[in-house]
Write a structure and sequence with these properties.
It is built from two helices and four strands, in the order βαββαβ. It is an alpha+beta fold and 95 residues long. The protein has a four-stranded antiparallel β-sheet with strand order 2-3-1-4, covered by helices on one side. Helix 1 runs antiparallel to helix 2 (52-69).
């Protein structure tokens, strides 16, 4: 994965929704699952990387799947994250 790849994130309330989102994202498009971050209060963010179109398709599919079994808090795609953003990502997401 290139550091210039898009970064997609789906944040859910609860673990089950995040697992469902992760599964749907990697099945829906040519993306790589790069990390999961638990941020407290039951919120879990799942991250994928790949080209912009694939990441957008993956996050759309992931959000829809997570919404069926839980609550989606946020969905976001950063097309080409600046290299400085890599420092705030979990170690596995910045590879």
């Amino acid at each position: 994965m290139s550091k210039n790849d898009a970064l997609g994130m789906v944040e859910t309330k609860g673990l089950v929704g995040s697992i469902e989102a992760a599964d749907a994202m990697v099945k829906a498009a040519n993306v790589t699952l790069v990390g999961r971050e638990s941020i407290g209060a039951g919120l879990v963010t799942v991250m994928v990387r790949g080209d912009v179109g694939a990441v957008k398709a993956a996050t759309d599919a992931g959000a829809a799947a997570a919404q069926r079994v839980g609550e989606v808090m946020s969905v976001h795609v950063i097309p080409r994250p600046h290299s400085d953003v890599e420092t705030v990502l979990p170690a596995s997401a910045s590879k």
